[in-house]
Amino acid sequence: MKLVLTYWSLWYARNQLIHEGSPLSMHKSIAFIRSYYAELEALNNSLSNQLVAHPGVWSTPAANIIKLNFDAHFISIINKSVSGIIARNSLGQIMGACAYPHTSVADPFIAEAKACEMAVSFVIDLGFHQIQVEGDSLSIIKKLNSTITDKSVISLIVNDIISMRDSFELITFAHVGRLGNEAAHELAQAAAQLDLPRYWFGTVPEVVERVVQQDLAP
């Protein structure tokens, strides 16, 4: 499998050079292969305590639970990512949202992990104690629900997220399909040009608000 990924990475680097005039460095190629192999490896692990949400739509959490959706927008040409985070209550009301830029991000896999880490940190600052964290990166969610010590390229991030669990009375990590994570996705996309963190309380950018309303439609 690693050999296949290596060939694929070389083909990708060749196309990027031809079509975009931007060569992919050896460091980036290695990071690309390593992170995607780790993701594939995680997808093949069977975890008995895996939490998987409905793959198609966003759903309101139970009473007194805050649902926290996260996603990442990765900009490869400058090794930057933006985390999109949105917290909603059992009525679907926006309790808080955050767009947080990160620099020196090697690949989308790390970008997603950073988004999850920032989401948990953000909700601690909001003062909520019963949380359901949702994201569309299945491998990240699996790692956070695993009892096996993580040894991948995101192990430090995973361990940091796990260390924050003690800040909550209840915290779960669940996977949701892209359509169920659309609000966080749109927030990360809309904030792609930000150089500093941006926070919203009770409201979000219009493009995100439209998705929030669609999530609540019968």
UniProtKB/TrEMBL annotation:
InterPro entries the UniProt entry points to: RNase_H-like_dom_plant (IPR044730), RNase_H-like_EbsB-rel (IPR052929), RNaseH-like_sf (IPR012337), RNaseH_domain (IPR002156), RNaseH_sf (IPR036397)
Organism, scientific name: Hibiscus sabdariffa
Pfam families: RVT_3 (PF13456)
Domain of life: Eukaryota
Residue ranges occupied by any RNase H type-1 domain in the UniProt entry: 69-191
Protein name: RNase H type-1 domain-containing protein
